[in-house]
Design goal:
Blueprint lengths: L7 H25 L3 E2 L1 H26 L6 H35 L7 H10 L4 H9 L2 H11 L2 H13 L5 H23 L5 H5 L4 H4 L3 H7 L4 E2 L13 H12 L4 H20 L5 H22 L2
Helix pairs in contact: 1-3, 1-8, 2-3, 3-7, 3-8, 6-13, 7-8, 7-12, 8-12, 8-14, 12-13, 12-14
Length: 303
């Protein structure tokens, strides 16, 4: 894919606009519901982001300086700026989205676990049977647990790799699709909140016990949020599954990388069921969300 296929301005405006929109929604919601953030964590986060923004601004100034003419050095510096810019945007966006996730869960909408479990059974999938089989094979469980934990590492590596390509189309496409995936995931999870299979079947997995903010939020007890301690609480649709499908898709331009990603993320998507405590319909919904996000990106931002 070449740059001519995507509108640079449209994509940039969408990415920046999405980040500021989520931040605005968070701020208004917190004010209206009389909630707040842990000040020390918030100041620490803002200071860290500001530091990297200053670094990025300095590098941009150097890049634009008339005495800085060496084409090789300019190309290298441009890639560094692209990487920094992408990471800064995603760090801010992830924190803002996590805060919105907490605010949505605190609305205490009716849980849909019973319906999701029923849908699994209607399509012939028995989660408990699969879970018990995996637990009886410790090596398989260990592999699934390890691969399941690679989502953030994969996302970071992909951003880094795509930033180094001559064309920035893939990076802009990746960020745009990812932002839409997150938006759709949040909206759907707000209407269809679920605790997941561990709670449904009374299984005391360590990964489930660590996600202990869900019930506290729904009870209305938590009114102060610590942005350094956000937990992943969305069950339906599965964000891990949606990310896995996206990682496979975005590396389609390289046969080797595509095959590696297909194997790795195929395992991660399956691990989402067992290690993440998701229903099969959560995983299917994650795939649909990614497909819809790709379609929206190509419809809105192609020249």
């Amino acid at each position: 894919m070449q740059d001519k296929y995507f509108s640079y301005r449209k994509l940039n405006r969408f990415i920046l606009g999405s980040v500021f929109l989520i931040i605005a929604v968070d701020a208004i919601w917190i004010i209206l519901t009389h909630r707040s953030l842990v000040l020390s964590s918030f100041i620490s986060f803002v200071a860290g982001v500001s530091f990297f923004c200053i670094i990025c601004k300095i590098l941009v100034t150097v890049y634009r300086h008339k005495k800085f003419r060496d084409p090789v050095q300019k190309d290298s510096l441009k890639k560094i700026i692209t990487i920094l810019h992408a990471f800064i945007l995603m760090v801010i966006y992830v924190k803002a989205v996590c805060l919105l996730e907490y605010l949505l869960i605190a609305t205490n909408q009716p849980l849909v676990d019973e319906k999701l479990d029923l849908l699994d059974k209607l399509i012939g999938f028995n989660w408990l049977t699969v879970y018990e089989w995996v637990i009886r094979h410790p090596l398989i469980e260990s592999i699934l647990r390890l691969v399941y934990s690679t989502m953030i590492v994969q996302a970071s590596a992909i951003i880094l790799f795509l930033s180094l390509l001559k064309s920035s189309s893939y990076l802009r496409e990746f960020l745009s699709v990812l932002i839409i995936v997150v938006m759709l995931t949040l909206i759907i999870s707000g209407f269809f909140p679920a605790q997941g299979t561990f709670a449904r079947y009374g299984i005391h997995q360590a990964s489930y016990l660590n996600v202990n903010d869900f019930d506290i939020l729904r009870s209305g007890v938590m009114s102060v949020f610590d942005i350094e301690k956000f937990q992943g609480l969305v069950s339906m649709p599965s964000f891990h599954a949606a990310s896995g499908f996206l990682f496979i898709y975005i590396l389609r331009f390289s046969r080797i990388l595509f095959l590696i990603s297909l194997l790795l993320n195929g395992i991660m998507i399956f691990a989402t069921l067992i290690i993440g405590g998701h229903y099969l319909v959560d995983v299917i919904a994650g795939g649909i969300v990614t497909g819809a996000s790709i379609l929206v990106t190509h419809t809105l931002f192609k020249r």
